[in-house]
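Project outcomes to date are best conveyed with an example. Our students and postdoctoral researchers have been running inverse folding experiments weekly, and each run begins with a structure described purely in tokens. The record below, which covers 276 residues, was selected by the lab manager from last quarter's runs and is presented without edits.
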């Protein structure tokens, strides 16, 4: 069998985040214990976040880049739930706007290692939930309000659609009628009756109204006008909070063996870049 060459891929994580010192570690890629490959990872601070050098095995440099982004990005998906920071991942030195943040969340080595461990666990046992975390991360870092809305909604919808049947006590007859009922049933499972729901207590129309916005954006029915953009922008803060609280509580209460986030900050404002 042909041995794949190993590549070193330079990645940039952009966001209001930093590391206290240079880190070196090895992390297992995937869950194949019979043919394991450990990626060598070096992480250094940068003014706009941190840089990572990740080794990957692939036929060519493009496939190596894609493999490194996929592997390291899924760790960031988990880390985003812990830090609640918008984290964009790309090539070091790419043309994405580079920002210098005045206030940055310090991420320690044990948090990154824990995120890798949790990523592997979710990948093996709950891959749909891991994809939902990927949607949540995208919802935080994208600058397009329509894309942000769809990504955050997908993080909730994907989790509810995949797991509602597996939870004892859910009204399956009602839930199977559609995704809105599935989300309602899952919210009810982790939070109780509507009046007890986090962020939106007593708002029985929240799922319906946000679903309508999702349909309007995804199907192109919602025109890209200043008024429509403003409407979506105004709804995003609540959707971010609901998605975050739901994902945190679903993981802790329904996905066995999961601890609560390391630092559930509940801080929703983005750190502002230093434009001076």
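After processing, the design step wrote out the following sequence:
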């Amino acid at each position: 069998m042909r041995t794949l060459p190993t590549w070193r891929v330079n990645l940039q994580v952009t966001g209001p985040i930093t590391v206290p010192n240079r880190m070196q570690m090895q992390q297992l890629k995937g869950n194949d214990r019979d043919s394991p490959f450990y990626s060598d990872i070096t992480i250094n601070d940068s003014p706009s976040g941190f840089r990572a050098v990740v080794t990957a095995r692939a036929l060519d440099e493009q496939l190596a880049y894609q493999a490194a982004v996929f592997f390291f990005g899924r760790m960031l998906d988990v880390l985003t739930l812990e830090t609640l920071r918008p984290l964009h991942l790309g090539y070091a030195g790419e043309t994405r706007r580079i920002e210098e943040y005045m206030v940055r969340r310090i991420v320690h080595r044990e948090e990154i290692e824990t995120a890798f461990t949790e990523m592997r666990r979710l990948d093996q046992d709950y891959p749909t939930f891991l994809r939902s975390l990927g949607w949540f991360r995208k919802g935080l870092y994208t600058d397009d309000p329509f894309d942000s809305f769809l990504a955050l909604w997908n993080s909730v919808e994907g989790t509810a659609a995949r797991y509602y049947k597996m939870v004892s006590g859910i009204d399956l007859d009602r839930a199977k009628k559609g995704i809105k009922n599935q989300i309602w049933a899952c919210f009810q499972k982790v939070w109780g009756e509507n009046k007890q729901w986090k962020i939106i207590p007593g708002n029985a129309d929240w799922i319906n109204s946000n679903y309508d916005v999702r349909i309007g954006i995804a199907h192109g029915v919602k025109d890209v006008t200043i008024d429509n953009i403003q409407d979506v922008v105004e709804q995003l803060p609540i959707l971010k909070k609901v998605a975050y609280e739901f994902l945190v509580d679903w993981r802790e209460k329904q996905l066995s063996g999961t601890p609560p986030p390391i630092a559930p900050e509940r801080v929703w404002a983005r750190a502002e870049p230093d434009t001076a």
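Residues 262-276 have pLDDT under 50 and may be disordered. The two ends are 56 Å apart (CA to CA). The training component of this project remains on track.
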